Amino acid sequence: MIEQVRSVLSQTAMIPPHIATLPEDANLPEAGLTSFASVQMMLALEEHFDIEFPETMLNRRTFATLGNVSTAVAELTRKAA
Amino acid sequence: MDAKTFDAKSLLDDLFDNGVLFDSGIDGLYGRSGDFEEVIERFEAMVLREGEKDGATRIHFPPGMSRPALEKSGYMKSFPQLAGCVHSFMGGESEHAELLGKMATGDDWTEMQESTGIAMTPAACYPLYPTVAARGPVPDEGLLFALSSYCFRHEPSKDPARMQLFRMREYVRIGTAEQVSAFRESWLKRGRAMIEALDLPMEVDAANDPFFGRGGKMMAASQREQGLKFELLIPVASLKKPTACLSFNYHQDHFGETWGLKFADGSTCHSGCVGFGLERLAIALFRHHGMDVKRWPANVREALWSA
């Protein structure tokens, strides 16, 4: 899953290119992902995986690391399946 | 305070009936009485007196600003629903005839207007950052500004405390993270003391801006988690949902990065502001102390008129 997430992020405009290459547990805001860019990330993932993040998941923790993002996407795609 | 009549519509009617505000036919656009303006002037004097010793540079901005500057600031990413831009007719005589024809038949004529490059100022500090950036490096001790502007936000409402055109006073600090944090702490204390002196009920709480859409929910949660925004809330049109009359904001390096605000050593500046919603504060005073300014409690009059 994390490779798919990396692939989506690397193709999303407004997300700095190095973000997709960070280690799984690197803190994304600290690595330069602005809150607006994390919104772009959320929208890109929703479109690519045909999922919708529920409001309870729309927080900093969900989008803090690529690992957290992948876990959340995996959970939502499993529910959608 | 009568809890039964404590709602937006009856408060607005009360303000109209007592000649404090005047209906314009558009929700959120009102005429103001002489007394209302005097209360605002007196409160502004209080704010200025409080900040005087800090030596802020005063700048008064008009209600319109450069549209490209607003775009660059990121406003359209976060609050597209609140923004307003100014358009004007720039055609010749034949287009003018067409425009009048459309008006006469009730068709939409506004498409014949073009952008003037002016956007309505949404908060007093938006025009400041490009102005500061143009002046070169920020000195080590940072900068402090005392701003005022009429502001526009498109959110029509019957709540008189939610106007579409209103005045905002701000102190803006540009400096290191530590300088901005100390500034905000100091104004959280000063703001409370000022509202206490005006005998108004209040609470200070963590808050978030009304970011647009579902992505906005994420930005709002992030803003709260990081403690970037606090509001001083006073019950005005509702007891359950008190009105933010002052706000205390830490922008981190958002505007510093956006506008290239840097110290001489090349490090990026942080910024923060304290904003005073002047009409909101005035309406809170009328709501709690009565529609007749002369009959307000002596301590409140003293606090305002001795400023």
Automatic annotation (TrEMBL), chain A:
Q: For the Carrier domain, which residue ranges apply?
A: 1-77
The highest taxon in the source lineage is Bacteria
Spans through the membrane: none
Q: Which PROSITE patterns match?
A: CARRIER (PS50075)
InterPro entries, per database record: ACP-like_sf, PP-bd_ACP
What is the designated name of this protein? Acyl carrier protein
Organism lineage string = Bacteria, Pseudomonadati, Pseudomonadota, Alphaproteobacteria, Hyphomicrobiales
Automatic annotation (TrEMBL), chain B:
What SUPFAM superfamilies does the record point to?
Answer: Class II aaRS and biotin synthetases
EC number(s) in its UniProt entry?
A: 6.2.1.n2
Q: What class of enzyme is it?
A: ligase
Q: Which GO terms describe its molecular function?
A: ligase activity
Gene3D superfamilies the UniProt entry points to:
Bira Bifunctional Protein, Domain 2 (3.30.930.10)
Superkingdom field: Bacteria
Alphabetically sorted, this entry's keywords are: Ligase
The record, for InterPro entries, names:
aa-tRNA-synth_II/BPL/LPL
The name this protein goes by in its record:
Amino acid--[acyl-carrier-protein] ligase
